[in-house]
Write a structure and sequence with these properties.
Number of domains: 3
Helix content: 25-40%
Structural class: alpha/beta
CATH class of the largest domain: Alpha Beta
Distance between the termini: 66 Å
CATH architecture of the largest domain: 3-Layer(aba) Sandwich
Shape: globular
Oligomer: single chain
Order of helices and strands: EEEEEEHEEEHHEHEEEHEHEHEHEHEHEE
């Protein structure tokens, strides 16, 4: 199984980025005639020097995803060992939360596998054909490393269609609870395992949510794209006098209200169903102002061709948000669009401030938390960027 050879082109056309696990179809010169989609292959240079081993799928532009840069045998034991190693790296978080990303795909050397822990439940996603072949080994590895009571699969993604896979969602073993309670610092949340977005909760924003604790006391807070109220709950728990969360989906807001009640915050945290752009414009035009505004939208650019539209959306949001702040207020603004790098996002923020006639001071740079590790050789692992900004009139 390990001997099927894929040979790269010579020169720059076949050169891989050092330490990066992706081999694109255009970089390949020859494929072993016995190699089938999903098979483990050995990648070699045009001079037959070994590059590494991974799984092959010609349906995808990323034809090979490397799991090892040496001659390791890729089998069930390899997958289980990698999972154990990934989970061990997260031990430092266990004093702060019982919800964390246990496996983060390429960043943990397991491309195509994502696994999140929510209390006694693991929710995992398999996104590629090669990892689909190892799914049972992945489940066994998660059982060994995490010892969950329940395991739920949420393999639902456009990536699976590209890979030639159908979406799949099911419990492995006994059926768990639809909603699981977790804690994050002093906040508690209910996570909808079966119906929530992606795996249920935006774990990558943990660090930024808890950072509100130092600035929210006595403030009026607006939480845009609030989802199930993560930022809202932390702001209210930290002494905000009033918090308004806004999002477009009723089921998310219903859970946000449950989360507010769970933390004893129902009197200070309210939620509004609305298009965020419309709400923000109407709020500004009515003269309402806030001390802190959180702008945490979903990805505006899921492909390179959407970058122009994404930057326009980010600029409009941040422009109106800055004008909706009381003088000296704080804007907490984020982008999770990988195709919008920090340099571009920062430039958009600067242009929004210029047009709004505001002076901005960076109080804090924001990144995904440590259970979403950033591997410098794999820039795609760094997708979340953000700022806490002091906003003053010029």
């Amino acid at each position: 199984m390990q001997a099927k050879i894929i040979k790269l082109r010579s020169g720059n056309s076949g050169r891989l980025r050092p330490g990066h696990p992706w081999v694109h179809g255009r970089q390949i010169l020859a494929v072993d005639e016995s190699a089938r989609p999903g098979d483990i292959v050995t990648v070699v240079t045009s001079e037959f020097k070994p590059v590494g081993r991974g799984y092959y799928n010609p349906r995808s532009d990323i034809a090979v995803r490397l799991l090892a840069f040496g001659d390791e045998t890729i089998d069930e034991s390899f997958i289980r060992d990698r999972i154990a190693r990934a989970v061990k790296k997260r031990e430092a978080l266990l004093s702060k939360t019982n919800a964390y990303r246990a496996v983060y795909s390429e960043a943990d050397g397991l491309p195509g596998l994502i696994a999140d822990v929510y209390g006694d439940t693991v929710v995992f996603q398999v996104l590629t054909l090669g990892m689909e072949r190892f799914k049972e080994a992945a489940v066994a590895g998660l059982r060994d490393a995490v010892s969950p009571v329940y395991i739920y699969e949420r393999s639902e993604s456009a990536f699976r269609k590209v890979e030639g896979l159908k979406d799949e969602a099911r419990w492995w073993g006994g059926k768990g609870k639809g909603e699981v309670e977790i804690f994050e610092g002093k906040a508690r949340f209910l996570v909808d395992i079966e119906k929530g977005h992606k795996t249920g909760f935006y774990l990558d924003q943990r660090r930024s949510r808890t950072a509100l604790e130092g600035i929210a006391k006595g403030k009026k807070v607006l939480d845009l794209f609030c989802y199930t109220g993560g930022f809202s709950a932390h702001a209210a728990l930290s002494g905000a006098t009033a918090v308004t969360g806004v999002d477009i989906k009723q089921e998310w807001l219903d859970l946000a209200r449950k989360n507010a009640a769970l933390n004893g915050l129902a009197a200070r945290a309210g939620f509004v169903k609305a298009d965020v752009f419309d709400f923000l414009r109407n709020s500004y035009n009515s003269g309402e102002r806030f001390d802190i505004i959180v702008v945490d939208p979903p990805s505006f650019a899921k492909a390179k061709g959407q970058i122009a539209g994404a930057t326009k959306g980010y600029k409009e949001l941040n422009y109106v948000a800055m004008k909706s702040l009381n003088d000296g207020g704080t804007l907490c603004t984020f982008s999770c669009s990988h195709h919008v790098p920090n340099e571009l996002f920062s430039d958009v923020i600067k242009r929004a401030a210029r047009d709004a006639k505001k002076e901005i001071t960076v109080l804090k740079r924001c990144h995904q938390d440590i259970d979403h590790p950033i591997v410098r050789a794999i820039p795609e692992t760094e997708y979340l960027k953000g700022y806490f900004l002091r906003v003053r009139s010029i």
